[in-house]
Amino acid sequence: MSIDAASTQVAALYRFVRLEDYENLRDPLLEFCEARGIRGTLLLADEGINGTIAGTQQAISELLAYLRRDDRLADLDCKFSYNSDRPFLRMKVKLKKEIVTMGRPGIDPNQCVGRYASPEEWNALVDDPDCLVIDTRNNYEVEIGVVRRCRPGHSPGC
Fold it and tell me: How far is CA 88 from CA 40, 51, 85, 105, in A?
């Protein structure tokens, strides 16, 4: 099955949850995705699943239903976008020590979490000189996520 470039749905997904058997999930998940023409990368680890994939809306819906049949993944978080081009060349399901590299064994993102901030709270936090913000975005993410601050009376993009 090929992906129709005019209707490519991109799904970014993650779920922090204990997956002690994550190694056994790899092959069936890869086969499921390949059979539906889904492309991208999924990371599996003891701490959960993370990844970005692309395919037809139907294929992505089928994959999400397949994943959510596992009670541990029933609350899988997913964000969608659409692209006219196929963004990924192949499907990969990788086994990792961590889905988000922290370099500290034993950290449980479900147990050790911070407080979520609204956009207004976030703006106040980053403007607070006593607040330390550690930006973990890669170069691409920084480039597309940079907000230029303009002098009063000037338009964005100044």
Answer: 5, 12, 9, 31
